[in-house]
Amino acid sequence: MDVTRPRVFITGAGAATAAGIGVAPLWEAAREGRSAVGPLELARPLRSNIRIGAQIRGFDPAAHIESGVLAFCDRFTQFAVVAGDEALAQAGLARGERLGPRTATIVGTGIGGADTIELGMHNAYVTGQRVDPWSVPRLMPNGAASQLSARYGAQGPSFAVASACASGTQAIGLGAHFIRAGLVDRAIVGGAEACITASGMKGWEALRVLSPDFCRPFSKDRNGMVLGEGAGIFVLESEEAARRRGAEPLAELCGYGTSSDAADIVRPDASGAASAMSQALDDAGLPPGAIGYVNAHGTGTLANDAAEAAALHRVFGEGLRRLPVSSTKPIHGHGLGAGGAIELAVTLMALRAGIAPPTANWTTPDPKCDLDCVPGQAREVAMRYAMSNSFAFGGINAVLVLGQP
Amino acid sequence: MSTETKENILSDPQRVYDQVVDLIVTEGMVDRDKVTPEATFDTLGLKSIDIVMILTAVEEKFDVYIPMDGSIAEARDLKSFIDGVLQRIASEKN
């Protein structure tokens, strides 16, 4: 490891998921293996045989966001703001103080304002009603990043990362790179997504990757993923910046690796996934044996889980027998652009608690997924380092490694 | 919301004025008794976000397009704002 490189710490974490608002309900649900998947509730009619998703129910954005700001916030941005408020509060950074030019804001999203896009189309083509005058700022994929930047006066680099299901993970990794490069001292990073809409569901359904009943990662009887929505937001700080403020680090973000398969756009590739994991380990200066827990991408599709298991075998070899690897997607759903960020919050809590959360809904071993996926119940695991994987359509692989602070 | 016919709009300017005021009250969420010619955006607490909502509603009600030209963009008091809007409606319908 390059000793002159600034170390990057997580000083705040926030989440909004189907399990509830906050990291605490998310971690509790993940630890207990309690799924937040339920019957779909949609604003507009959906003709489909897929009727389940992990939605945030009873969410009242007006309880969290001022009306003058809320008008500009699509649902994905609302989640980002709520999760951001939690992360910044935990980091001890109040809304009153402007963070200034040395703070970046980088938030990933797969789609951006899906609900605003769909409603605009619906009004334009179906009902003839007026289109919301704030459609453009609501639907733009950088809406979440820009709202958080404005909310906290973060005047450094601000942008969205759009790389499908790797968006959140790449945004977090990029934030760490910006800090290491000395461009900023601090970064508000994460991912947000809210694309469980009638038309969005049809698109996913057409790809034949959705399960009509259960998300069962690594299980022989798995039949697809279940969509989720939400956000995960973190405050990253250089060691120096955190120490100056007397902020307590929750974990160190010690490694980030990302790669592109440069091959098939929708079929996962074990070598690309393995390469991203190896890069993340190299970046952290760690041997594979140092990792105590892996939060897998584990979507529950036939192709992903087999490819991910093969990649894990390449990277960890014999050590994979002793390594707990679980997917928490049966709990919070596949959060797409928010997925990696939501799962990093789970990974952070797993690291801090010394507990590997279970892979819920797992029933039957699959020789193609020959790994210890912590079926049934959470397990106590003493760990110094944990890994979180995200693999995306487009052939994008992104991996983060966290360490005890 | 029904769109006003051209004849209706041109034959009864007072009614058009009242309808524009109605939209200011509902879309801008202001008390009707505060809507006087000397009222300003500031005294009514109208921000740019409210003005956009009002203009959108006017466009819909009268089936017109209101470009942000000087007369409307620079208005800070209700009288010049409403005058600009009425002028625009009349010129589109003529």
UniProtKB/TrEMBL annotation, chain B:
This is Acyl carrier protein. Pfam families: PP-binding. InterPro entries: ACP-like_sf, PP-bd_ACP, Ppantetheine_attach_site. Keywords: Phosphopantetheine, Phosphoprotein. Gene3D superfamilies: ACP-like. Residues 11-89 form the Carrier domain.
